[in-house]
Design brief:
- This protein is an all-alpha fold and 110 residues long.
- It has one domain.
- The chain contains 3 helices and no strands.
- Helix 1 crosses helix 2, helix 1 runs antiparallel to helix 3 and helix 2 crosses helix 3.
- The longest helix has 23 residues.
Length: 110
């Protein structure tokens, strides 16, 4: 045993929210692209799954979005918010030292 933390299990507070925000962002983007081809009340199982995952997120984004933004573009805006939050979360965790490092900085002799 080297005493170093495990890359996955020691950093679960970093990985789980990062993964959840990625899923939210990509499904929002997928929903934006699919709405061109699928009716809003379609029984398509992929469309229903995307709506299940993103309906709550779109309603949250609607509360902070100006009303002149068309509902058609709301999933795209929600994806951008999720990507932005994911980036801010990752940078914050790295700055606090709570994220895994790929390599350690070494001195000139090491």
């Amino acid at each position: 045993m080297t005493g170093e933390p495990h890359f996955i299990f020691s950093y679960l507070p970093f990985w789980v929210p990062l993964y959840a925000l990625a899923v939210l962002a990509w499904t929002s983007l997928g929903r934006f692209l699919m709405q061109v081809f699928v009716r809003p009340d379609s029984p398509n199982y992929i469309w229903r799954f995307f709506r299940l995952l993103t309906d709550w997120w779109l309603s949250a984004i609607r509360t902070v979005t100006p009303l002149y933004v068309s509902p058609f573009y709301l999933p795209l805006l929600a994806a951008l918010w999720a990507f932005g939050l994911r980036f801010a979360f990752a940078v914050t965790m790295f700055a606090l030292g709570l994220a895994p490092r790929i390599s350690e900085l070494r001195g000139a002799g090491g």
